[in-house]
Write a structure and sequence with these properties.
It is built from six helices and eleven strands. With about 300 residues, it is α+β, with helices and mostly antiparallel strands. The longest helix has 17 residues.
Length: about 300
């Protein structure tokens, strides 16, 4: 697994057997709607509430990054700029999944679409977070889930309205992820400022079922924002300050993509809300998974050859 640098704090996972060029957007799920029987199977693994497990994160600002005077575990790559440790980011409202995507949910996607994945991704207890997931794998799941929810007659009305209004299922940006994890009070961990082994799965040997650790102090009642598996985002790995308008620029070359939250095997330093890891898009590792968001698509100028469906 990637390790943290004492000087720069960059966590990098490199896939040595995958050529990045041509991989990012080559695999796409079929556009046909999922059979209702398969959607019924998936619905059995989704939270039974009005938004099927999506949680609203209200619009507004939050402080992003780390101040080492407050957080002694902070890495250099969490510093906002040469003149400021942290910066303020103002985000529109979005919805994020309460839980990481599970093996059962990912298996339903694979069985419905015949999408090619690492065989190990489908092994393990069904309620554990899926691992061995590349960046294209995660985006393909998002596109499939969106199409499926749009076509399924039993999609809850509020969720159907959002999708009809152009909201899209995708990966979170790293700013969305960090706000969902830490809220607006700048906490170091989702539950507060000190590590707690009763609140997250870390420094262990394997994953646990999603939602195994109650976190009543967490700002938005989300589970496993620390530990269990690293979570992929749709933000390329770049130095701060964070700028959402650059998330889709200069993607023609090889790039690392931000992952957040740490994993079951990490120390407490790597499960903080501000931790920034970088992963090759083609890397498939047991400790890398994802969760999804529902977001209103921004108006962006994309590089030549890119469409909004490639990233959002």
């Amino acid at each position: 697994m990637g390790t943290a640098s004492d000087t720069r704090g960059i966590l990098i996972v490199v896939a040595t057997t995958v050529a990045v060029t041509g991989l990012l957007y080559s695999q796409r799920p079929p556009s046909a709607p999922m059979p209702s029987s398969d959607m019924a199977a998936l619905s059995g693994f989704l939270p039974d509430d009005d938004l099927l497990g999506f949680v609203e994160i209200p619009a507004g600002p939050f402080r992003m990054g780390s101040d080492p005077n407050v957080d002694r575990r902070a890495y250099d790559n969490e510093r906002w700029s040469a003149s400021s440790f942290q910066g303020t980011v103002d985000l529109p409202a979005f919805y994020i999944a309460r839980y990481e995507v599970t093996i059962a949910q990912f298996r339903t996607f694979v069985e419905a679409t015949a999408f090619r994945v690492e065989p190990e991704a489908l092994e393990g207890p069904p309620d554990h977070p899926v691992g061995y997931v590349s960046w294209p794998d995660a985006l393909a799941y998002c596109r499939w889930l969106q199409t499926t929810l749009q076509e399924w007659p039993q999609t809850p009305p509020q969720l159907r309205r959002l999708l009809s209004d152009g909201w899209r299922v995708t990966l979170p940006t790293e700013a969305q992820w960090e706000k969902a994890a830490r809220g607006t009070d700048g906490r170091i961990f989702p539950w507060g400022d000190e590590p707690r082994p009763d609140r997250a799965n870390y420094q262990s040997s394997t994953t646990t079922a999603v939602g195994s650790f109650a976190c009543p102090e967490c700002p938005f009642d989300l589970s496993d924002m620390s530990g269990n598996v690293w979570e992929r985002t749709r933000s390329p790995y770049r130095p701060y300050p964070y700028d959402p308008t650059t998330d889709t620029l200069d993607l023609d070359g090889d790039a690392l993509w931000v992952m957040r939250g740490g994993s079951y095997g990490d120390p407490d330093q790597n499960i903080r809300t501000a931790i920034r890891g970088g992963a090759d898009p083609g890397a498939r590792r047991p400790f890398i998974g994802f969760r999804v968001v529902l977001t209103a698509p921004p108006v962006l100028l994309l590089p030549s050859g890119f469409g909004s469906e490639d990233v959002y």
